[in-house]
Amino acid sequence: MVRREEVLVERPDLAPTWAQADAAFPVRVTRAVWEAMDPADPDDPIARQVLPDPRELDADPADLADPVGDAACSPVPWVVHKYPRRVLWLLTKRCHVYCRYCFRRGHAPGAQWDPSPEEWEAAAAYIAAADVEEVILSGGDPLVLKDAPLFAAIDRVGAGRVIRIHTRAPITFPERVTDALVQGLLARRPVWVVVHSNHPAEWTPQVDAALSRLVDAGLPVLNQAVLLRGVNDRVEVLAELSEGMVRRGVFPYYLHLTDRAVGNAHLRVPLSEARVLHDALRQRVSGVALPKLMVDPPDGSGKVDAAAGTGYEE
């Protein structure tokens, strides 16, 4: 992990903001992310995702404490059950890097980073008894956990089900993707890995190696990106992102609008602009390389295809 003092050497302008931003939502930068960006450039597409911004501290009228309606769909702590045939288990609140646009900013780690043993057991029991086809392991980032507790969670709820691991670790902490992790996931198939990359600048040799370990082993890998102001809100960047993922054997699955979490208003792209960008992307890339444009409404009803012509309106 890069020390705050090291970051502030490059970005002394962040010193007045850092403590207050960190108190609201942790500021952490891994060495892999630090080496991929130009920290002295405030417009660097990676720096904009992970370094605090004074605008985080400004309230916006559209801010929502629970921007995707998870609370109303949580039958027991650490579980979200929005869809009839799939359920999401939040294994931890920890992440290697806390992205400044995160829709779970309102659930920032405080005294309790992880479920208690009793909460873990209650979540596992609920999921084991649920009539679902898929179990999604999320967080936080489930790959913050060591292999043993990660595999224990899969073994407890995964029999006869598809497991999805939603993780940013291959991008932010690529050394986490070890041969032991890959072999453990292969032994527990069907397992799908859904990664999260927003900009081609994130693809260092270490990130490419991590993705290759997953793909070459035969694990299906998909990418979810978030449309972010000043990061990837140009069709040229989106095309390079999608086509680059396809070349790496990763399917560009979703392009999300930024959920209206407290503190991320400066990174949001409105739906009307997102649709223009998505239509332009459709003209540039193949169907294989075209992610769905998705919105997760705040009423907890679940993700909606928001591309032009799908009937969705904010």
Overview of this structure, please?
- There is one protein chain.
- 32% of the residues lie in helices and 14% in strands.
- It is built from eleven helices and nine strands.
- Strands 1-2-3-4-5-6-7-8-9 form a nine-stranded mixed β-sheet.
- Helix 10 (235-247) crosses helix 11.
- The longest helix is centred in the last third of the chain and has 14 residues, at 271-284.
Low-confidence stretches: none
Sheet-strand content, in percent, reads 5-15%
CATH class term: Alpha Beta
Specify the overall morphology. globular
SSE string: HHHHEEHEHEHHEHEHEHEE
Topology:
Layout: H1 4-10, H2 15-24, H3 31-36, H4 47-50, E1 79-83, E2 86-90, H5 117-129, E3 134-138, H6 147-157, E4 162-166, H7 169-172, H8 179-186, E5 191-195, H9 205-216, E6 221-227, H10 235-247, E7 251-257, H11 271-284, E8 292-295, E9 304-305
Parallel strand pairs: 2-3, 3-4, 4-5, 5-6, 6-7, 7-8
Antiparallel strand pairs: 1-2, 8-9
Helix pairs in contact: 10-11
